[in-house]
Write a structure and sequence with these properties.
single chain, about 140 residues, mainly alpha, 5 helices, elongated
Length: about 140
């Protein structure tokens, strides 16, 4: 059974979007798919696919939607970790502000702070490829 394609309703599509660009293999595959579904050309086929996707009649796990999902998951993980770090910082601040903190801890935290400053300074320095070649 041949799938039903959009029938001409008297309303001609006049607004052009594009041009779309494909590799040779992609274009051949698009032409083949359009012909298999009864289209005379690939532009009407591509337009119908896009409109079906927009209206929700057709869904696909496109790379774009997968990238969006991955980005969302990454942001959620970063926010969770930042929240955990914030909780830890609050606990450390509360402990340091209490009179029960041993002096040794304050000294070690000063050393840690100095190391973090050195790391931050090293990360701020721009990478100079000429330095790597000279070495």
């Amino acid at each position: 059974m041949q799938p039903a394609i959009r029938r001409f309703t008297g309303t001609k599509r006049t607004v052009r979007v594009g041009p779309l660009r494909f590799t040779g293999n992609e274009n051949a595959a698009l032409q083949e798919a359009a012909a298999e579904h009864g289209y005379k050309g690939e532009s009407g086929f591509a337009a119908d696919i896009v409109l079906a996707f927009i209206t929700g009649r057709f869904t696909a796990n496109l790379p774009l939607s997968e990238d969006r999902r991955r980005t969302h998951m990454f942001r959620a993980q970063v926010l969770r970790e930042l929240n955990r770090i914030g909780v830890n910082v609050n606990q450390i601040a509360r402990a340091l502000n209490s009179d029960l903190t041993p002096p040794d801890v304050r000294h070690r935290l000063d050393e840690l702070n100095h190391l973090l400053e050195l790391i931050a300074e090293a990360l701020r320095e721009p990478a100079d490829p000429r330095k790597d070649q000279a070495a």
